[in-house]
From TrEMBL:
Record-given protein name: PTS system, glucose subfamily, IIA subunit
Keyword annotations: Cell membrane, Kinase, Membrane, Phosphotransferase system, Sugar transport, Transferase, Transmembrane, Transmembrane helix, Transport
Lineage: Bacteria, Bacillati, Bacillota, Bacilli, Bacillales
GO cellular component terms listed in the entry, alphabetical order: plasma membrane
Organism listed in the record: Paenibacillus algicola
Location of the protein in the cell: Cell membrane
Length: 627
């Protein structure tokens, strides 16, 4: 599946230039106001010109964005792609008949070639006499030569390629509703793999041509819609009922079918997701809530989405968006639409069908959507992102496992050395809605709209070499803050700082690498010294030091232990009867060595599970010597 990984990287890069479109839509909407009646006609003229300017230079933005995205943010690659586009425009304008204009497809080609040249030759060394042209300058030199030759060849090929694309578009139009039905299904299927941007780029930016009154030629369903083409919008209008109504209805169905004890947490998460989807059209967090739990239900969803495209086509509804089919774009671009008011009753009908269909399916087939089993709810974000990022990085296999980390609006897009090192359960507990492995080390992790912020924090961690110690869960059960332990000494952190657990299985395992310092006589507590100099105490239950018999240690003082290694077996039933509490603190007894603390969400954990606690040490090493 390595080719899927390559497509993932291309899809991410192709999506990058579209970030400029919302600004263009806002400017065009602003320019459409009746400024002439208000005596400020020039404001409308300037805003409209600015908005159309974004679409006019969209091929150049694609060239820069694709080159920048595929070269791991290599600035010279983007500069070389832009220079190539300038050369292409000049050569085709001089040698051609003046009708050849740069398109988004040409921009993507230049971005691809520039990134390939940059990745291959950015460190090239030439003989000393001409080393001035080595390194990044060599990339610009190669792209300049390539651009001139490519443009010269395109003088003859461009009309044929354009003719082929027009023929393909005419075939799609000839298929009518069936073609849109297939598009709607493909959109939803590819969205599961994060590859829908590739499909959309073809239909939204390359198929169909429209000449504006001033003679400017624009291509693609999206630019044509904003340029005033009355036939544009077919490949966008049908998405509004799905994004604004159907998917939020799924969120409401998931909330209603959640267990009563988990419903408050599920409601908080999915009400937010429903609002985000309704307003902006960002839908992954809702779709991933049932994609893996019930692929067959997702297929039904894809078919329904395809039918929505057919329905809007049959009713001659034309509407478009700058980013996605949410309420914000619905309102901003309403003045350019045709029959768009009908999307509201269609969407309401779709919402009702989806709500009752999903409630019936979840209940009838026992689909484990969030909130129907312990630990399955997508929690609201627990804590600040900077404090959660170290745990997410560890769940991804650690810094040494990361080759590259990027993001789009809703998911991290990573390349890792070994995707088997990724802890899917830990990521789920940290707020991930889904994990997709595309092969070749290419992985996607859906975190919703937090993804970009998480990427930034992970990149910061990748660039810093902080002395950090990560802790696994020492028991299976539920994690809770140390302040919630029903013991004044532990709760006041007089013994040390850390977390606690309510075990539901009678086994204690090591949370860290280290050496056993103490096994207390009754074996109710174990002390471990880590290589970094931290002293960790794990105390099974409260007021258990006088109990004899329920504990059986399998390690002794001086033993080397590793995360997940069994330390003590204990009689859980006996402790439930005789201990003051099952709360099991795990504390660092020398917290002065710790600079900062990061905690996973306080919820159910499995013994040996990574990423429940992460601490950054002070600037001295374990032995107390300055670094």
């Amino acid at each position: 599946m390595n080719w899927l990984g390559s497509l993932q990287q291309l899809g991410r890069a192709v999506m990058l230039p579209t970030m400029a479109l919302p600004a263009a839509a806002l400017l065009l909407s602003f320019g459409s106001l009746p400024w002439a009646a208000w005596g400020a006609e020039s404001l409308g003229t300037i805003a409209t010109a600015a908005g159309h300017g974004v679409f006019y230079y969209m091929p150049y933005l694609f060239a820069i964005g694709v080159a920048w995205g595929l070269s791991n943010q290599g600035g010279p690659a983007g500069l070389a792609a832009l220079a190539g586009m300038f050369i292409y425009d000049q050569v085709t304008g001089t040698a051609g008949d003046g009708e050849i204009q740069p398109s988004t497809l040409i921009g993507i080609i230049f971005g691809l070639v520039s990134s390939l040249v940059y990745n291959r030759f950015k460190h090239i060394k030439l003989p000393e006499a001409i080393q001035f042209f080595g390194g990044s300058r060599f990339v610009l030199l190669i792209m300049g030569l390539f651009s001139a030759l490519f443009a010269w060849g395109m003088v003859g090929l461009a009309p044929r390629i354009q003719g082929g694309m027009e023929s393909f578009y005419e075939l799609t139009v000839h298929l009518g509703g069936f073609g849109l039905f297939l598009y709607g299904i493909l959109y939803r299927v590819l969205a599961a793999f994060g590859l829908h941007h590739l499909l959309n780029n073809v239909y939204w930016f390359q198929l169909g041509t429209y000449e504006t009154p001033d003679g400017t030629v624009v291509q693609g369903d999206l630019p044509r819609f904003f340029a005033g083409d009355p036939t544009a919008g077919d490949f966008m209008a049908g998405l509004f009922p799905i994004m604004m109504f159907a998917l939020p209805a799924i969120a409401f169905a998931i909330i209603q079918e959640a267990r009563e004890d988990l419903k408050p947490k599920v409601k908080k998460t999915f009400m937010r997701s429903a609002l985000v989807c309704f307003l902006t059209g960002v839908s992954e967090q809702i779709e991933f809530a049932f994609l893996f739990a019930s692929p067959y239900l997702y297929i039904v969803h894809a078919l329904m989405a395809g039918f929505a495209m057919v329905l809007t086509y049959m009713l001659n509804i034309h509407h478009g968006f700058s980013y996605s089919a949410g309420f914000i774009d619905f309102v901003i671009n309403f003045h350019l639409s045709q029959n768009a008011w009908m999307l509201i009753p269609i969407g309401l009908a779709y919402g009702l069908v989806y709500y009752f269909l999903f409630r019936w399916a979840i209940r009838t087939f026992g689909i484990p959507t969030p909130g129907r089993e312990e630990g399955s709810a997508l929690e609201g974000w627990a804590g600040n992102i900077p404090y959660q990022a170290p745990l997410i990085l560890e769940a991804l296999g650690g810094k040494d496992n990361i080759v590259q980390v990027e993001s789009c609006m809703t998911r991290l897009r990573l390349t890792v050395y070994n995707d088997r090192q990724i802890d899917a359960n830990a990521l789920k507990l940290l707020g991930s809605a889904g994990l997709i492995k595309l092969g070749g080390g290419n992985v996607q992790v859906v975190f919703g709209t937090y993804s970009e912020l998480i990427r930034e924090e992970i990149n910061k961690l990748m660039q810093r070499d902080l002395p950090r110690v990560l802790f696994s869960a020492p028991v299976q059960g539920r994690m809770l803050p140390i302040e919630d332990v029903p013991d004044d000494i532990f709760a006041a952190k007089l013994v040390g700082n850390g977390v606690a657990f309510i075990p539901d299985k009678g086994e204690l395992v090591s949370p860290v690498f280290g050496t056993v310092m103490h096994v207390y006589p009754t074996m109710h507590a174990v002390g471990i010294a880590t290589p970094e100099g931290l002293e960790v105490l794990i105390h099974i239950g409260i007021d258990t030091s006088q109990l004899k018999g329920p504990f059986q240690a399998v390690v002794k003082e001086g033993d080397e232990v590793e995360p997940g290694q069994l330390l003590v077996r204990f009689d859980l039933g006996y402790l439930k009867t005789h201990a003051a509490s099952l709360a099991t603190p795990m504390v660092i007894t020398n917290p002065d060595k710790v600079k900062s603390w990061s905690y996973a969400p306080f919820k159910s954990v499995k013994k040996g599970q990574t990423s429940v606690l992460s601490v950054v040490l002070n600037e001295s090493n374990p032995g107390g010597r300055e670094k």
